[in-house]
From TrEMBL:
It holds the Pfam family ADH_zinc_N. InterPro entries: ADH-like_C, ADH-like_N, Crot_CoA_red, ER, GroES-like_sf, NAD(P)-bd_dom_sf, Zinc-ADH_QOR/CCCR. Its EC number is 1.3.1.85. It comes from the Bacteria. Residues 46-408 form the Enoyl reductase (ER) domain. NCBIfam families: crot-CoA-red. This is Crotonyl-CoA carboxylase/reductase. Keywords: NADP, Oxidoreductase. It is an enzyme of class 1 (oxidoreductase). It comes from Roseovarius gahaiensis.
Length: 428
């Protein structure tokens, strides 16, 4: 089939069929009736190696403001783990579809556009951010779209995520793909990067500023590695926290001012009852941790911000060590959801507790420009083939993955490819 040369993709011949194998390129813009997907069903909820199964499903139909994207590669993040487990909530309780396709990060090619879409065309190479909304309320028009009552996360609160040959998204979710990156590198960063960007720069007046200090939990992970890089772009100082000494050099290589191993301290978990002997022991250890921060920042210099996401295990310490008037900003609870803290330090020192949830388009696009400008590294630690998507999520669930971000291949047949022509040639 001859292609329109205006797409920027060199013409190639491909038959029109109703289903294509993984890695097989359809004619540009041809939408097959069905596709392969890693599907989750309610009755299979459990660990990813049980809850994820490959199925042949109908290809998504799109609405007027939606876009169908051929997925070249996808990112692995905790949304997929939670979707498989059905915790903290089952995605089926939200969208009600018969099956759920996880995946909240992707890089691919615009394959079909709705009738109202003006800014994108078939053949455009894109990355996808995961925030959706209906666009009609006051928060979406002059406020913060993340506060919209219709706000939802694609691939977790919607059934049409990226672990399939085609994914369905709103047109406002698309952003240009950094052409210097491979497909898998392009696919692995948007969720963690945009989340970190909003946490650090999205909560006025506590935007991270030059010369300030930020404590970064999980500094070797996807979120943490971007928090450190973004702090550097702002002229701030990141102090990374790790739990494995083998990750120290990776964190320093991202530009951390210093690194602390939390295994050297014993003040983790829920806060003991205030003013008990157990509390006094906890406080002694927590202050030792605070002194380790001072060894990096200078005596008496507490951090301006704490970049929180473990939750239950670390929250009491976070709220203690942040400075007077500083902010603890949290986006997850990977160690548990029952966060405790000594509220006396909160009100007496006028500290701020701030929840943060992904990012809106302006924030995601600002972060993406830093990647396009090569001011950030995608920190891709590992890439998995299509048939190992459950295995990748099992590694994340068990905290056995390498530092950085993980990606999985979908239509891209092997790592290292950067163009559509590369994909076509590799698939021959």
């Amino acid at each position: 089939m001859a292609l329109d040369t205006d797409t920027g993709i060199a013409p190639y011949d491909a038959p029109e069929r109703d289903l294509y194998e993984i890695g097989e390129m359809p004619p540009l813009g041809h939408v097959p009736k069905q596709m392969y997907a890693w599907a989750i069903r309610r009755e299979r909820h459990g660990e990813p190696d049980k809850s994820f199964e490959v199925e042949v499903v109908d290809t998504w139909e799109i609405d007027s403001n939606e876009v169908l994207v051929l997925v070249m590669a996808a990112g692995v993040n905790y949304n997929g783990v939670w979707a498989g487990l059905g915790e903290p909530i089952s995605p089926f309780d939200g969208h009600g579809a018969p099956y759920h396709i996880a995946g909240s990060d992707a890089a691919g090619i615009v394959w079909q556009v709705g009738s109202a879409v003006k800014n994108w065309k078939v053949g455009d190479e894109v990355v996808i951010h995961c925030n959706q909304d209906d666009g009609n309320d006051e928060e979406c028009n002059g406020g913060d779209p993340m506060f919209s009552p219709t706000q939802r996360i694609w691939g977790y609160e919607t059934p049409d995520g990226s672990f399939s040959q085609f994914t369905r998204v709103q047109a406002q979710q698309l952003m240009p793909r950094p052409k210097h990156l491979t497909w898998e590198e392009s696919a692995c960063y948007t969720l963690t990067l945009a989340t970190a960007y909003r946490m650090l720069f999205g909560h006025h007046p506590h935007e991270l500023k030059p010369g300030q200090n930020v404590l970064v939990w999980g500094a070797s992970g996807g979120l943490g590695s971007y928090a450190i890089q973004l702090a550097n772009t702002a002229g701030a100082n990141a102090i990374g926290v790790i739990s494995d000494e083998s990750k120290r050099q990776f964190v320093m290589d991202q530009g951390a001012k210093g690194v602390i191993n939390r295994k050297d301290f014993n003040c983790w978990g829920q806060l003991p009852k205030v003013n008990t002997p157990e509390y006094n022991e906890w406080l002694k250890e927590a202050r030792k941790f605070g002194k380790a921060i001072w060894d990096i920042t200078g005596k008496g210099v507490n951090v301006d911000m704490v970049f929180e996401h473990p939750g239950e295990a670390t929250f009491p310490v976070s709220t203690l060590v942040v400075k007077k008037g500083g902010m603890v900003v949290i986006c997850a609870g990977t160690s548990g959801f029952n966060c405790t803290f000594d509220v006396r330090y909160m009100w007496m020192h006028q500290k701020r507790l701030q929840g943060s949830h992904f990012a809106h388009l302006k924030q995601a696009a600002s972060a993406n420009r830093l990647m396009i400008e090569r001011r950030l590294d995608p920190c891709m630690s590992d890439v998995f083939p299509w048939d190992e998507i459950p295995s990748a999520h099992m590694q994340m669930l068990r905290n056995e993955h390498k530092p950085g971000n993980m990606a999985v291949l979908v239509q891209s047949p092997k790592p290292g490819l950067r163009t559509v022509e590369d994909v076509i040639e590799a698939g021959k």
